[in-house]
């Protein structure tokens, strides 16, 4: 693997570490500033564990005002900042910088509002992806983008990475499901983007923020749309003599106008590895498997299953 080239550390920042820690403690009193190596170890990498690096210091703010003050302080003193949600990123997005403040959003973990009339949820960025669905499941709703890390990853991280999952084929990625954001800019300014509706007027700032990997600001509030759970969902498991045949089937299903809730393909090696591990009972005499999930009203799903 080629080595990731990190920017050279700012020597002035490194030399001022003790003062920076004192200043950050003034903004975030109590135990919100973590500076001992043994305690910072938990933050040294994200899901891309091939790369590790200790941050200058870790700060875990609790309020938007604290986030604003931290960013303004870092901006005024030319200190780098890396926001962090749950740290499951597979692209090194939350990898600390040696001369950077690691800004953990884990304490922003509350659902602020469930608005069934407008079919949306307002949440703090540290709420897990699955936490949003859990908050509305009793009324038959859910949040559609479903990264396989959804039990752990935060909605703030989802915004920054424009995350998606199996069901994004039909229901879209994060960018198709986010309605509004509160963002703190590096200057400390707090801005509101969008609201509780789709397609706000003006420039597509929501689109700009979604997928920006924490480089444009820190998300402190998220409004996402929720959907009614489909009446039914059923999956087909289809075996093929080759991966090419399975791929052609995907193309045929899509070109026939069928939008499956999800489609996933496994080649021979994936089938055998998964079956060895969980004994799922997959057929072992095929070279490829396609799992096609169809959802919607019962009658529609019956027809679509026959067509597929
Ligand atoms: C087992 C596993 C399975 C996965 N499956 C999928 C999958 O199916 N689909 C998928 O898309 N991804 C998947 N991922 C990747 C990862 O879970 C997603 O990218 C997720 O959105 C990251 O969220 P996080 O809270 O962990 O963010 P982090 O890893 O903490 O951060 C990710 C990026 O977001 C930024 N960030 C975090 N919070 C904020 C904030 N509040 N404001 C501004 N920037 C912020 C960080 O700076 C960083 O650049 C998987 C990861 C693992 C480990």
From TrEMBL:
The molecular function GO annotations come to:
FAD binding; glycolate dehydrogenase activity
E.C. number, please? Answer: 1.1.99.14
**InterPro entries registered for this protein in UniProt:** FAD-bd_oxidored_4_C, FAD-bd_PCMH, FAD-bd_PCMH-like_sf, FAD-bd_PCMH_sub2, FAD-linked_Oxase-like_C, FAD-linked_OxidoTrans_Type4, Oxid_FAD_bind_N
Asked whether the UniProt record includes Oxidoreductase among its keywords, one would answer yes
Q: Which EC class, in a word?
A: oxidoreductase
Keyword match Oxidoreductase: yes
Describe the location of the FAD-binding PCMH-type domain by residue ranges.
Answer: 51-229
- Identify the Gene3D superfamilies for this entry: 3.30.465.10
Alphabetically sorted, this entry's keywords are: FAD, Flavoprotein, Oxidoreductase
Entry's Pfam families?
FAD-oxidase_C (PF02913), FAD_binding_4 (PF01565)
Name-wise, this protein is: Glycolate dehydrogenase, subunit GlcD
Task: Please give the organism.
Answer: hydrothermal vent metagenome
